[in-house]
Write a structure and sequence with these properties.
With 293 residues, this protein is of the alpha+beta class. The protein contains 9 helices and 7 strands, in the order αααααββαβααββββα. The structure holds zinc ion. The site of zinc ion (ZN) has 8 residues, from loops.
């Protein structure tokens, strides 16, 4: 395995995020009585567990970006182990820190698995906006724990998938760093389509491309149906080659929703630095639409 030091560093970051997540979830539960990882939608969809699993595995994501290690099967195994262990580590942290009102430490009186059995079967579910208490969940508590376990694993896998999807320098397979972003707003679909279809027809170091990148006709006029193109300029820290990633969103009644089919990631020829274009230093910002031919 090449870059062994990098992989060790990544593993260290992963274990660190795991420990921090377990400590935070337990501390919040102790302080407020709110258990983040038990949060679910429609009783069985383990949203909180998925987020907690992703948080526990997030060190693998950030460590990989930092050390430029590519995700491989060994990373996936680590991520899944950490996500799966997080649930039990949180149970154990609860168990070992639980002190009853009469000052008795629970861990001094009963074993961990006895504690776990009581904890899972006597938990109370609260359902709906009124937070109606449905009473102790009984053996269904074990099923809830299984659903949450699946949530933790899914959270870990999501972390891995995000890393797999992260842009990579095609030349030296390192992770490019973000250099600049720019946003462009369109209230007219035709105007957006003309922009989107023509942008990369022009040489990226020429004036027309710079004009298109500075073209933001409906900035500040966001309404339902507004199309937002977000461009991210990334540069490889090693060979300096740049890439432009574009993501497109449409404004709904109150929220942006992504249009994944329009996402693109375009390589820029070597030795071209587009940072001035993103900062608007080249290409006059014009209010009229740039020439499309
Ligand atoms: Zn490179």
């Amino acid at each position: 395995m090449k870059n062994l030091g990098g992989h060790v560093g990544v593993a260290f970051f992963g274990i660190l995020s795991f420990a921090i997540t377990v400590a935070l979830v337990t501390a919040i539960d102790r302080a407020t009585g709110f258990n983040l990882f038990a949060l679910s939608v429609w009783v069985v969809v383990p949203v909180g567990a998925t987020l907690t699993g992703a948080a526990a595995a997030s060190g693998y994501y950030f460590g990989s970006l930092l050390f430029h290690t590519r995700p491989n099967w060994f990373l996936l195994v680590q991520v899944m182990i950490v996500a799966a262990l997080a649930q039990f580590a949180i149970y154990y942290a609860e168990y070992s820190t639980l002190v009853l009102d009469n000052g008795i430490r629970v861990a001094d009186r009963i074993g961990f698995f006895d504690y776990l059995d009581i904890r899972l079967t006597t938990a109370h579910m609260r359902i709906g906006r009124a937070q109606t208490d449905t009473g102790a969940v009984g053996s269904f508590g074990y099923w809830l724990a299984v659903f949450q376990f699946v949530g933790f694993i899914l959270g870990g896998i999501a972390t891995y998938v995000f890393l797999k999807d992260h842009p990579v320098c095609k030349i030296c397979s390192r992770y490019p760093r973000k250099l600049a972003t720019s946003m462009q707003h369109f209230n007219d679909r035709e105007a957006f389509a003309t922009y989107y279809d023509n942008l990369f027809d022009h040489p990226v170091d020429g004036p027309v491309f710079a004009q298109w990148m500075g073209h933001d006709p409906d900035k500040g006029l966001i309404r339902e149906g507004t199309i937002l193109a977000t461009s991210t300029l990334r540069g490889c820290p090693h060979c300096k080659t740049q890439r432009i990633g574009q993501a497109v969103q449409i404004m709904g009644k109150s929220d942006w929703s992504a249009v994944p089919s329009l996402t693109r990631d375009v390589g820029i020829p070597q030795d071209i630095d587009l940072r001035p274009v993103f900062k608007g230093e080249t290409g006059r910002r014009i209010s009229a639409q740039p020439a499309s031919a």
